Amino acid sequence: MKQEKSCGAIIVTKGIEPPKFLLIKHHNGGHWAFPKGHVEGTETEEETALREIMEETHLTVELDTHFRHVVHYSPYEGTVKDVIYFIAYAAEQAIQKQEEEVLDSTWLSFEAALALITYENDRIVLEAAMNYLIKN
Predict the structure, then answer these.
(1) 8 Å CB contact between 99 and 22
(2) Which residues contact residue 122 at a Cβ distance below 8 angstroms, ignoring those fewer than 6 apart?
(3) What residues contact residue 27 under an 8 Å CB cut-off, 6+ apart?
(4) What pTM does this model have?
(5) pLDDT digits over 77-99, tens only?
């Protein structure tokens, strides 16, 4: 069984109430979700998440590793994948999307983001992130 690991983050506006969440439309599959990508070499999970956010959005963010949510699934037969999500706080909302991987992006309220997200696993991650934000 092949193992894959990706890391990313639920990006939320910092200091804006109510918060806005960043969703990107991935070129691979055309689904709406969060910035993420494969771990490269000896990168830590945190380094991977920050690199992928920078590559896909050009945002400088503050990563909150106290929130760590793992999604485990099989993208295709013979492969299992873990995607580790953190929360990342963005002080600005202007992004420069990576043309090769990102078709579109948008900042949305929690409710609107929940409605636009393509996959149930990602909706569960967003709900967990919102619950974390409310408690902290």
Answers:
(1) no
(2) 32, 33, 34, 71
(3) 100, 101, 102, 103
(4) 0.93
(5) 899 999 999 999 998 999 998 98
Q: Measured between alpha carbons, how far is residue 28 from residues 25, 66, 72 in Å?
A: 9, 29, 19
Domains, the chain, in order of start with CATH, read 2-135 (3.90.79.10)
> Is the pLDDT reported for residue 104 higher than 90?
yes
d(CA 109, CA 13): 10
Is residue 22 within 8 Å of residue 35, measured between CB atoms?
yes
User: What is the rounded CA–CA span in Å between residue 134 and residue 30?
Assistant: 30
Q: How many CB atoms lie within 10 A of CB 130?
A: 19
Exposed / middle / buried, residue 111 (Cβ in 10 Å: 0-12, 13-18, 19+): exposed
Residues 6+ away with beta carbon under 8 Å from 30: 103
How far is Cα 69 from Cα 86, in angstroms, rounded to an integer?
A: 7
Question: Cα(92)–Cα(70) distance, rounded to whole angstroms?
Answer: 26
Helix (H, G, I), strand (E, B) or coil at 120: helix
